[in-house]
Amino acid sequence: MAVKERRARPMSWIIYYFLLPILASALFAGIALQIVGINVLGKITTATDQIPAVRHMLGQSPLAPPVPEQVAALTRQLHQKTNEITRLKRSVVSLEAKVAADQAHLVVLSRQAQARLSQVHKTGMVAQSAVKQAKVYMDMSPNQAAVILTQLSFAEQVLVLRAMDSADEASILADMAPKQAAKLLQAGA
Hints:
Blueprint: H1 2-36, H2 40-49, H3 52-58, H4 68-139, H5 142-149, H6 154-163, H7 166-174, H8 178-186
Helix pairs in contact: 4-6, 5-7
């Protein structure tokens, strides 16, 4: 028994004189640093969580190692999405240009429509005026009406003759020069 005690003593000497003072110093230093404001406990916990044996003893799931294939797949997806965004931006630019061109075309068409509406309105006014004039010419003698009608522009002559009934038109055309009457008939008077 004395031999066993002697062999146990060198081991106890290492524990009492070497390991315990180191552990006590580390504990006091950790407490002092924690008081100063350094998160020693959090850093130790983080470091020990990275050790697989400690995670197993604590019942935590093992750390998932970074998978290069997943990283590569995510990189490919990122590249595809970036390309798609670039393509969509180009599409937006071309569509905006098309919208601007269509708006300019719409302005041109609107102006043309306004001009045609004005022309139709003017033509309607001219037609009303031609009807009034036709009534006046029908009240005159055909010879007088023919002389006065030849003083008007060709377009006005056609409009006035169109507004007359065919009997009055025929009597006035009969009193005109044959060439003038033929031109008016060809024009649809």
